[in-house]
Amino acid sequence: MRQGKIKAEFISIAAHELRTPLTSIVGYLDLFQEGRFGELPPLIGRPLSSVRRNAHRLKRLVEDMLSVSRIEAGKMTLKPEPVNLGEVVTDVVTELEPFANDRNLHVATHIDPIESIDADRDKL
Questions:
Q1: Which candidate, 54, 52, 72, places its Cα nearest to that of 62?
Q2: Which pLDDT does position 69 carry in this prediction?
Q3: Which site from 21, 40, 74, 100 is most exposed, i.e. has the minimal number of CB atoms within 10 Å?
Q4: How much is the pLDDT for 25?
């Protein structure tokens, strides 16, 4: 039991320590992508997009680690609200499309209208 608690604390501390610099990295990459520092040379656009996507992915993984720590500690809070699952799927497909495009794959979806459910959208 004691080892499990030590492991959970370590994961929580490591995730928090990773989140701080990642937030800064992701923030600056977003600003570059938005053109806030001026127009970037065309050759930089695609690699920058790839770095930005992967930084966001890493940040989500760190957030997932923190969520697991909160669940194990019994401190997870949910914010249920009406959620349209079709929109969630569309958002996920849109987010993953660049990965498919990098591999010359095309992703198509057709989602029939469904009723909203009460859920915490960020946790889905």
A1: 54
A2: 83
A3: 74
A4: 94
Q: Global pTM?
A: 0.62
Cα angle: 4, vertex 7, 13; to 5 degrees: 140
Cβ 121 vs Cβ 84: under 8 Å = no
pLDDT along the chain (124 residues), means of 10: 79 88 92 89 88 92 87 83 91 82 84 89 82
- CB under 8 Å to 59, separation ≥6 — which residues? 19, 22, 23, 26
Six-digit token pair at 72?
């194990």
Of 67, 109, 56, 63, which Cα lies nearest the Cα of 87?
A: 109
- Domains belonging to the chain, first-starting first, are 1-77 (1.10.287.130), 78-124 (no CATH)
Altogether, the residues listed in the chain come to a count of: 124
| pLDDT recorded at residue 45 | 85
